[in-house]
Input
Amino acid sequence: MIYSMTAFARAQAQGPWGSAVCELRSVNHRYLEMRLHLPDALSELEQPMHEYLRQHVKRGKLECYFRLQLGGSVDVPLQVNFALAKRLIEANKELAQFLPGVISIDAMAILQYPGVIQSGEVNLDGMHKEILQVLEIAVKDLLAMRQREGEDLKNIFLQRLDGLSAELAKAKERLPVILQHQRERILKHFNDAQVEMDRQRLEQEMVMFSQKIDVTEEIERIETHVAEVRRVLKQGGLVGRRLDFLMQELNREANTLGAKSVDVDTTRASLEMKVLIEQLREQMQNIE
Output
């Protein structure tokens, strides 16, 4: 089984403590990069969440968002910053000396000033287990989507590999035809010039020509790499980096095949193979 690195999942839960929503977004990345966006009330869960995500996601850029809405049953202690409130009252009195029309501030106005009312620590031990369960559900859905996407990518890979094998077969079929055409071309030149042909010289020319256009090694390597890609896809797991290496090797051999080509059909087959390999490389970027 192979996995895509692109997915989205959302899970939520409600209880006497309120409600929580977890959203996971995953995109492709060369390594594993995680970012957790948690409200202050869940800050102590950051480390266990981080470890849990690392256990289940091995590669990709992962964003985890938690939204928490505490219910009325949660006792949130409030603390008054009396030092700040006192400074506000004194500042109001000083202004009244210079501006007689200044209205004295009342208690509610002081309490509404930022920083005067502070929330004390909330005892959320009872809800932490349920919060972690929300994360587990979201991760399960995320992995299921990555798996579905991975299967789709696998099918795309297999289709492109079939096309690659078909173009490779065309190049193999053209080799004996190219040699025969070259032999006929040399003979025609001598006949047109009305010069007697040295058979030994002809064979030497054909040997040199066949060595020049010999792409047997490149074809065999491409066949080997295609077989290895199929094996890796069948094996599954964390295959993205291995496939990346194989795509580089396939592209290199296809370039060499095209450089040695002296036939239009072989050149076309080489170009088509390069197009298919590039398509594979683009899709491979999303595989974990």
User: Anything to note?
Assistant: The first helix runs from residue 46 to 56.
